[in-house]
Batch of 2 targets.
Target 1
Amino acid sequence: MTAAKGSSPAMNPRADFDAIVVGAGFAGMYMLHRLRGLGLKTRVIEAGQDVGGTWYWNRYPGARCDGESMFYSYSFSDALQQEWTWTERYAAQPEILAYARHVADRFDLRRDIAFDTRVTAATFDENQRLWRVTTHRGEVLTAPFCIMGTGNLSTTNLPEIDGLATFRGATYHTGTWPHHEVDFASRRVGVIGTGSSAIQAIPMIARSAAHLTVFQRTANYAVPAWNHPLTAEEVAEVKAHYAELREKQRWTFSHNMFEPAARSALEVSEAERQAEYERRWREGGLGFTSAFTDIQYSDAANQTAADFVRAKIRAVVKDPATAELLCPKIIIGCKRLCVDTGYFETYNRDNVSLVDVSSTPITRIAPEGPVIGETIHAVDALVFATGFDAMTGTLLAIDITTSEGNSLRDKWRDGPTCYLGLAMAGLPNLFIITGPGSPSVFTNMIPTIEHHVDFIADAIADMRRSGRTRIEVDGAAESAWVQHVADLAEPSLRPSCNSWYVGANIPGKPRVFMPYMGGVPAYRRHCIEVVENGYRGFNLS
Ligand code: NA7
């Protein structure tokens, strides 16, 4: 890869590009589109062979978005949202990937994307005022701005279990699924993990495998998707009102169109509470925990929602011992709520067994399969649905430094610190799209991405207009924001339990509650005030 010929960079004649964007998922693609619109010469660097990011890699059976398709999509182009037609309430991975490809074609994005190329390091040269971005091929590209669109769930977590290399069968990770069809027919399959990915994959694998053994460490809550094909009328109705619906979406709590909670779970009668949970259950999806205002804040309120889901599980799963094992003991909302299609029903099949690895973990993997205590569970294939080094893993895999000796790895040694989840003190002209300290993973990601991309593009455009070339977060503003994010999380039940939100799934990862819990409207208002006050908290020069 060499610097593209043609126009020279507008912002720093010594650089190859005006901006380098890492990642060609939904963040990187829209970032490229916006920067191009500003006339900036931009290069996107993408590890995969095509666009799509998360939806390029997560191809496991049953992979599907648990945000509703008509609102889990770009809003920046009305022509795009009018011409694209989603076929199901929740889009499956192939459809989302097809959409990403369509966007790349429609906006002619690929000509500025270097595929199959992984960024290994990025160093800011203070003298030249530019980032030197190094790829795994050894190339170095330069630009005054570097923007990380690297995703929050893009570095897989493969637990280190003794003997894995000796396993005779095939191994898979849901987050790096092969591109070819994986045929589990007449094979004994083991799935490790019961998070969102597993809960989607298990019913599908159970249908084809000779036998499926699920190794569960922590039982999880799942609410039915009630997925269905969208009718022409449903699609037409949304399309006719997209403009106002999108504006409404931008000011919802999580960029989802859930009905917001109005009351405490504890202020209503038992009958009203049950009716509200039942109504939300019938509706399906992630809006379930928006039933009451205090589900994430009061243990007693949380228990009412948890008890409701546990009763549903017991009603579905026929074997009482299996049902008890599947009933989560953790608070609801501790780990991300899962949305399922036939997950609990799958345990009624004769070819599915559930193995509890909470008290006795998987001690090692023998050539035949996982060993728990003295028992070898023989399988022909092992699926790791063991999640990701979320939110920070991918950024820390890149050696991000400055010529002044600052380094992201040092800065984040005790956990991520970031202003607005967008940029950091000590690392000028570097932006993160949906970084730690922003609403990010608590929201519908595509509109959240659009918000950050617009912020970054507008900031660069403002700098260009005012002839400024350097933007850096003020250390005090960053510390105050980090404290604000922690203060928002503190009264909630969430930081107290183990999840990837606090880094608890990765051994040795500092325990910090990473997402912003104040909701999208408050966050958007902060961002607006920052800009209106001359980029308060940033130093521009
Ligand atoms: P998750 O939600 O992080 O789930 C990973 C699962 O793997 C979870 O059940 C873990 O149990 C389990 N796990 C991890 N390591 C082990 C070992 N060593 N032994 C047994 N079980 C293990 O990842 P997903 O891919 O499902 O979902 C990630 C996000 O993608 C999701 O939240 C949505 O936002 C979309 P644990 O709970 O740690 O006990």
Note: Residues 1-6 have pLDDT under 50 and may be disordered.
Target 2
Amino acid sequence: MAPSKLETISFTAFSNIIDGQLRGSKGHYHGIDPTTKQANWDVPIATADDVEDAVAAANRAHAEWKASTWEYRTERIARFKDAWEAYEEELTNLLLKETGKPRQFGSAEIKSASQFIEWHVGLKEPKGETYDFPDKKIDHKFVPLGVAAAICPWNFPLLLSLGKVLPAVQMGNAIIVKPSPFTPYTALKMVEIANRVFPPGLVQALGGDDKLGPALVDHPDIHKISFTGSIATGKKVMAAAAKTVKRVTLEMGGNDPAIVLPDADIAKAAPMVAMGAFFNTSQVCIASKRIYVHSSQYEAFLEALINVAKTLKVGTPDEEGVMLGPIQNSMQYEKVKGFFRDAQDQGYKFALGAGQVPETQGYFIHPTIIDNPPDDSLIVTEEPFGPIVPVQKYDDIDEAIRRANNSRAGLGATVFGKDPQLLQRVADQLEAGSVWINSYPAAGPQAQFGGVKESGIGTEFGTMGILAYANVKAVTTFKG
Ligand code: NAD
């Protein structure tokens, strides 16, 4: 049966969602359509009173929701899926407007949101272990934390917000979503749709200025922060959360290596590496940001990679054959241009592209490849989060692993080759939260996702993502 639209939702008017109501504000901000640099719709800036009201409503909602069963909450999530699917077309168009992504990928993202929801509908309630001794029985129970705040980035504004809402409510928590000020639109509408099926106050959204994130992290009646964003901001969140001993999940930046082993099939690996490096115009936390290729096939691989990268058409969402959209915002655009300038100033060899980024009507940058820059170059040590990637030569595999691990980040990694044992050995030795073998990096609801080292604390998704929203309580009952 085709899903029905429960109530009309406007996709051209945007509000915060507090205690089941749409709420405006005196102050406004707006995102930019990055394909044109034109302003998108106004969005209210949440005030300090809005924060207080939302936190109070969330605690009220949690008090009831935590007493519901897993089955009841999961059934509500299934209803949310139906409500969600009724708006897929509108949400796709909105996502394209706020991010400039090519339609095929924006549309796939909206569809994958449904798959995320479906995964949660199928999840079993996690149960703690029970130990039965002659004198006592110990039960471990997972109990919800209370109220969570989701602090979200702009690169996948919808999926990364949804990926926090689902486990939070399924585990019995309330959640307040704070979208990135660059991309508030789809996240606000996701929460509006969620309010068609969840009780008032359970899933809320507050958008605003630079004061809002810190206000949520500092608030004593918020019990958990699930943050996705840069390493620099994540460190601030962690430090501030210490004041109230808030639980934190931190999903932060990466500087992911891709290792092309000596026996890799270049024709297969090059398109995968190109996709890993340039998908979403490289604005992906798990994008391949350092590419290590064995010296025996360095030149051939580089040529193959250039040939694939050249075919990646850059343009607006509905242009025929477009593969890459713009950089999402001007701040990031300027930051990425800094990597181009540095590579030019240092005299590195541009295997594809040039040091000058031509001005266009949007924040467009074409895929660019730097040929074998030194290990201490900016393009190797830092995360550009834009379509400029270094390819480096190595002579032996242990050296490649050592160089790949020589980073304070440890989010993801990819490795390409034929020998299954060698692939596993390399995967095991890479210091990363996720490793993909013979594929571009692709996160999804089934696999645990999180970083090691400075890339994060805790994981999302998978089955353990649920437990990021639970405390464990040990109840020991003495017998006789
Ligand atoms: P960012 O750190 O600038 O912002 C992230 C969020 O934090 C935004 O909502 C922002 O408003 C908020 N914020 C800013 N200052 C804050 C403070 N002091 N306290 C609380 N909240 C604050 O990150 P971004 O530019 O939006 O996203 C890009 C970065 O995110 C990249 O480094 C990327 O690698 C990383 N990222 C990581 C993952 C992951 O899962 N590990 C996924 C996507 C993006």
Note: Residues 151-155, 160, 178, 180-181, 213-214, 217, 228-230, 233, 236-237, 251-254, 285, 383, 385, 411, 451, 456 surround nicotinamide-adenine-dinucleotide (CB under 6 Å).
